[in-house]
What does this fold into?
Amino acid sequence: PLYALERAWRDPAASAAAALHRQCAQLACKQPQGRRDLRPGTAEPAAALPTGSAAPPGARAPPVARTFARDLVFSECPRWHDGRLYVSDMWGQTVYAFGTDGTREAVQRFDDEPGGLGWLPDGRMLVVSMAQRRLLRLDADGPVVHADLTPFADWSCNDLIARADGTAYVSQFG
It folds into this structure.
């Protein structure tokens, strides 16, 4: 399951980068159920708080993690874009988008493991095709090869960072 900090969904003043940072920190959480108190700024458990206890006066209460997605095989490469969280379910071979209300949309299914995600200035999504070592672009008719990375990448490709001008940086294993 994926976990999110309540504050990341409820704080409209939070920047996209700060929200993404909070989402990434929570992807490491593997607690299957119940409440999990976290030390502020980390994904590590805080000292256990007895049920119903209050934080000392003036202390900032730790955020509470909650499950917002189940039934993903292996989620990776989260990106916050236009008010939604996008995730590659690598072994499920699907890219999903999650709304702040908890809705899930299968954006695209692939015949390879999708990895890093990014966007071009015109709003089209870029997706790394890991084993095929290609950068794909999602057009209206589906995925097309945006760049063949096989001459440059000897091993599987992995993550992606795309700049606002459309320049894409792709990492690889090995």
